[in-house]
Design goal:
Layout: E1 6-12, E2 25-30, H1 36-44, E3 62-67, E4 71-75, H2 86-102, E5 106-114, H3 121-132, E6 137-142, H4 149-166, E7 173-175, H5 184-196
Parallel strand pairs: 2-4, 2-5, 5-6, 6-7
Antiparallel strand pairs: 1-3, 3-4
The structure holds guanosine-5'-diphosphate.
The site of guanosine-5'-diphosphate (GDP) has 15 residues, from helix 1.
InterPro entries: G_ENGB_dom, GTP-bd, GTP-bd_ribosome_bio_YsxC, P-loop_NTPase
Pfam families: MMR_HSR1 (PF01926)
Family: Belongs to the TRAFAC class TrmE-Era-EngA-EngB-Septin-like GTPase superfamily. EngB GTPase family.
């Protein structure tokens, strides 16, 4: 798939205000600093498309972008901020859970994982939440340029092993680097392929 246009549509804190248009939607989520904004910008070949979500006060929002006038890319807030208060965390969980439960046009969620980090409880729990709610997701390993291939394979195997404790089949996996562009073609072909079906 070629990216012909990528436009910011709107930011919301509540899914009921999200765009009503019934076009396929793909969501990006992961722990803060996982490389989500960089990945979105790399995929869309835009320097600061995802920067909108990085503006102070706007970080806790659901950001919709319309791609090629055909599908929505949704930039969800990063989870797992140690500094965030318990009250804020509960509100955050509530509106994110609502997003996943309410958004019927959601085709796939991309759960971003920093390739350098060992499996983290918060990521596994989040995937379990998606699984329990039958929300399709793919695993996206970011910052692959930071590791050698044997270490990278080890990290991915560690994740797969944990997931196989809970599931019979593994989610589709992408290996990406925003620095080198690794994974861009596979990623866009995957979305393009689904949209054509
Ligand atoms: P976000 O908080 O998930 O949106 O993360 P950012 O996209 O802002 O990235 C967090 C940090 O990781 C920044 O310093 C980026 O430059 C860096 N980063 C993101 N992706 C990559 C990557 O693929 N390779 C490398 N080497 N650094 C990356």
């Amino acid at each position: 798939m070629k990216i012909r246009s990528a436009d910011f549509v709107m930011s919301n804190s509540n899914v009921i205000n999200a765009p009503k248009e019934r076009i396929p939607e793909y969501a990006f989520i992961g722990r803060s600093n996982v490389g989500k904004s960089s990945l979105i910008n790399m995929l869309m070949e835009r320097k600061d498309l995802a920067k909108i979500s990085g503006k102070p006060g706007k970080t806790q929002l659901i950001n919709h972008f319309k791609i090629n006038d055909e599908w929505f890319l949704v930039d969800l807030p990063g989870y797992g901020y140690a500094q965030i208060s318990r009250k804020k965390r509960t509100i955050f969980q509530y509106f994110i859970e609502n997003y996943f439960k309410e958004r019927e046009q959601l085709v796939c969620t991309f759960v971003l994982i920093d390739s350098r980090h060992d499996p983290q409880k918060i990521d596994i729990e989040f995937m379990q939440f998606l699984g329990e709610n039958q929300i399709p997701f793919c695993l996206v390993f970011t910052k692959a340029d930071k590791l050698g291939s044997s270490k990278l394979n080890k990290q991915i195997s560690a994740y797969k092993k944990i997931l196989l404790d809970s599931w019979e089949t593994l989610p589709m996996t992408f290996l990406t680097s925003s620095s080198t562009g690794l994974g861009r073609k596979e990623f866009l072909d995957f979305i393009g392929g689904i949209n054509e079906d």
